Structures are given as structure tokens and as C-alpha cells.
């Protein structure tokens, strides 16, 4: 990443905003800070933001609602922060579209590592290897790796977060091969993955809702008992 990478820190605690602004600036990022959702929206409207560091508990509109709005509008990746460290809160944040989640208190070095990992995924330089540029077709969908987009049989784009996109690429380019959660974490997140990371299961669930005819009875991304997941349909290139 370079000093032109622009981060938006959204937290109602001025001390935390100032601390993160100083720390992230020292690591070469350009940083804008907002105290609430209204400021966040204003900055997103008139500045080119590459990633949002978003606190869950905010006055007025909370972080979950703001993250959902960012996803619906096709906004930048989101790393969510929260003093609520329970699994249920973390999973909820990931389900509504956060690209990563970090409980407070946290080590700023870990935040930087997670920001870098999310930006790598968003910019197509993940640990999955060299960036592919071709398209693959499956079940009426087209996964265009040059444009980093998924379209359905009618040519309509299916909105994916950076994490969902990388996970789909990992699966669709390795069809009919059982991939464990650890395999998928390594491919999509590399060393930023932590122990007991459940984000793969959350993202699989979100992907199924977007591409499966019946998410409750998946036929595209199947679960392998005690193994992981397998991308089952036939995949073809143009």
C-alpha cells in the first residue's frame, strides 16, 4: 500500500480517533476521521475512500446499519471494530457485509495487518497467487476476473464484498476439489487468518444466498462433512 491509500476511521471516541489517525498515518496511510454516521456519509460523498474502519457502537445510526448501507451502495471495504467481542456480534457484522471484524481492545499492529489483508483482497493481490484475467462460467453465472465481477444469466451484476469475491474465485477455480476451511482461509487471507476463524462459514452462507437456487439445499457450494466445502458444478471458460 502507498501513502495515497485513503482510510476513513469512524468512531465516536475522540481519543481512539486521534490514536488511530496518528498510528495509521505513521504507517503510510492518508487518514480521515469521522465521529458518526452523518460525517461518514459526507466524507464518502466527496472523497475517494479506499477502506472504512468502522466502530459498531455509534450515536444515532449504528455501525451495522452503516455497514449494510455501504454494501448496498457498492462502497469500499469495511473493517468493523467493536467492544462487543461475542461470536454472535462478530458473525452478525460479517453477515451484513463487513470484510473483517476486530474486537476492542485490539493491538494497532493487528489492525494494520487486517487492513492490508482486506486491501489485498479488494485490489486482487491476495495469497491466492497471480491474478487471473479470464472468465469462468457455471450454472448461468459468469465470473469475470479481469473486471472482478459476477453476473447472472441475464447479465445483471451480483453484488459481492471483496471477501465474498475472493472466496468465490478460490472455489470456482478449483472445482470438484474438497477445500477445508484452513485451505480457504490460507488462499483468501493468508497469514491474517486467526485461530477458530469462522468468517469462511459466514461468507459461504452469504454466497449461497446470492447464487444458490435454494440456499437451504445448496447444489453449487456443497458442505463436505468434517472436510470443508466443494464447488460441485461444471466450470467452463469462454
- Summing up helix and strand content along with how strands pair, one would put the structural category as alpha/beta
Element-level helix/strand string: EHEHEHEHEHEEEEHHHEE
Secondary structure: helix percent:
25-40%
Which residues form runs of ≥5 with pLDDT under 50? 125-132
Approximately what portion of the residues adopt beta-strand conformation? Answer: 15-25%
What value does the average pLDDT take?
A: 83
Primary descriptors:
alpha/beta; Arc Repressor Mutant, subunit A; 38% helix; 238 residues; single chain; 4-stranded antiparallel beta sheet; Rossmann fold; 5-stranded parallel beta sheet; 8 helices
Characterise the protein shown here:
Keywords: Cytoplasm, DNA-binding, Phosphoprotein, Transcription, Transcription regulation, Two-component regulatory system. Residues 133-233 form the OmpR/PhoB-type domain. By secondary structure, this protein is α/β, with parallel strands linked by helices. The protein folds into two domains: 6-122, Response regulator (Rossmann fold); 135-231, Orthogonal Bundle (Arc Repressor Mutant, subunit A). It has eight helices and eleven strands. It has helices at 14-26, 37-46, 63-72, 87-95, 108-122, 162-172, 181-189, 199-211; strands at 6-10, 30-34, 51-55, 78-82, 100-103, 135-138, 141-144, 149-151, 157-158, 221-224, 228-231. Strands 2-1-3-4-5 form a five-stranded parallel β-sheet, sandwiched between helices. A four-stranded antiparallel β-sheet has the order 6-7-8-9, covered by helices on one side. Strands 10-11 form a two-stranded antiparallel ribbon. Strand 7 and strand 8 form a beta hairpin. Helix 6 crosses helix 8 (199-211). The two termini are 33 Å apart. Mean pLDDT is 83; it is low at 125-132.
